[in-house]
Design goal:
With 262 residues, this protein is of the alpha/beta class. It has one domain: Carbon-nitrogen hydrolase (Nitrilase/N-carbamoyl-D-aminoacid amidohydrolase), CATH 3.60.110.10. The protein contains six helices and 14 strands. The strands form three sheets. The protein has a six-stranded mixed beta sheet with strand order 5-4-3-2-1-14. A six-stranded mixed beta sheet has the order 6-7-8-9-12-13, with helices on one face. Helix 1 packs parallel to helix 2. It is globular and about 50 Å long. The termini are far apart. The mean pLDDT is 96.
Length: 262
C-alpha cells in the first residue's frame, strides 16, 4: 500500500529502436529492464517504443495485442507503473496510443492529441480528444506524447490537477534545443515535475535522434539530462518539496480561465 505524499522513484529508458520490429524491441527492452526490480516505481519508455515513429501498418497491433501483454507482464514482474506509446489499430483506425500499465494489470490509455503534420502523422493516425491523468502511489500523473509538448494549453495544469507530467517522444536531433526548452517551460508554468523521454539512434526514415531525456523540477531546473548515450536513469521526486513550493509560490491562483474547444 502506498504512503500518502510519498516520494516517487521514476526511471526512464533512453534507447535506440529497431525499425518496425515489436518482437526485437520488446526483447531488447526486457533484457535492459531486469535491474530495475525493487529500485523504482515508474518506468517510462519512448514514444512508439515497439516500432519507431512509423507511418505504416507494419507493427500495428490491437490494444490487447502482444506488446501490451508484454507491458502487463513487465509491470507485474517489476512491480512498476510502465508507460510507453504503441502503434494501435482499433476498429480499422490507427492511433498513437500511450499505455500506462499498473502492476495490478489495470491500464490507463491516452491517444495522442497533436499529430505531427510535418511527418505526415495526421494523414495516417487519428487524434485523441481526451486528456489522461493517472493516479499511482498517491501521485497524479499527466500523460502526453511528443508534439503535444509544443501546445501549452493542452498541458495546462488547471487547478493543479497533476503533480508530474510525462512526455514520451521520438523528437529529432535537429530540434533538440526546442525539446529541452519546452520541457523546462511546461514545468515552470504548471508548477509540476516534468519527465521527457526520447529515443536515440537513426530511424527507418534516416532521421537522427539525440535523446536529451530529462527530469525537470517544478522550478524548471534540470535534475538530470542526458545527451545521445544509451542509458536508464532513475530519480526520486519529492512530494514535500513540490507542495512546499506551491504553497510559497501559488501562481496557479492567478491563472487565466479557459475552455478547450473541440
Amino acid at each position: 500500500m502506498s504512503t500518502p505524499n510519498q516520494d516517487l522513484r521514476v526511471s526512464y529508458v533512453q534507447t535506440d529502436l529497431v525499425w518496425e520490429d515489436p518482437i526485437a524491441n520488446c526483447a531488447n527492452l526486457e533484457e535492459r529492464l531486469q535491474g530495475l526490480q525493487g529500485h523504482t516505481d515508474v518506468v517510462v519508455l519512448p514514444e512508439m517504443f515497439s516500432t519507431g515513429f512509423s507511418m505504416s501498418e507494419k507493427g500495428a497491433e490491437i490494444s490487447g495485442g502482444p506488446t501490451v501483454q508484454w507491458m502487463k507482464l513487465q509491470a507485474q514482474r517489476l512491480d512498476v507503473l510502465l508507460i510507453g506509446s504503441v502503434k494501435i489499430k482499433d476498429s480499422g483506425i490507427y492511433y498513437n496510443r500511450l499505455f500506462a500499465v499498473h502492476p495490478s494489470g489495470k491500464i490507463d490509455t491516452y491517444d495522442k492529441k497533436h499529430l505531427f503534420r510535418m511527418g505526415q502523422e495526421d494523414g495516417f493516425y487519428t487524434a485523441g480528444q481526451s486528456q489522461t491523468i493517472i493516479s499511482y502511489k498517491s501521485w497524479r500523473i499527466a500523460a502526453f506524447i511528443c508534439y503535444d509538448l509544443r501546445f501549452p494549453v493542452w498541458s495546462r495544469n488547471v487547478g493543479l490537477q497533476y503533480d508530474l507530467a510525462i512526455y514520451v517522444a521520438n523528437w529529432p536531433a535537429a530540434r533538440t534545443h526546442a525539446w529541452s526548452s519546452l520541457l523546462r517551460a511546461r514545468a515552470i508554468e504548471n508548477l509540476a515535475y516534468v519527465v521527457g523521454v526520447n529515443r536515440i539512434g537513426v530511424d527507418g526514415n534516416q532521421l537522427a535522434y539525440e535523446g536529451a531525456s530529462s527530469f525537470v523540477t517544478f522550478k524548471g531546473e534540470d535534475m538530470l539530462a542526458l545527451h545521445s548515450n544509451e542509458a536508464i536513469e532513475t530519480q526520486s521526486l519529492s512530494y514535500e518539496a513540490l507542495t512546499d513550493f506551491r504553497a510559497k509560490f501559488p501562481a496557479h491562483l492567478d491563472a487565466d480561465s479557459f475552455t478547450l474547444l473541440p
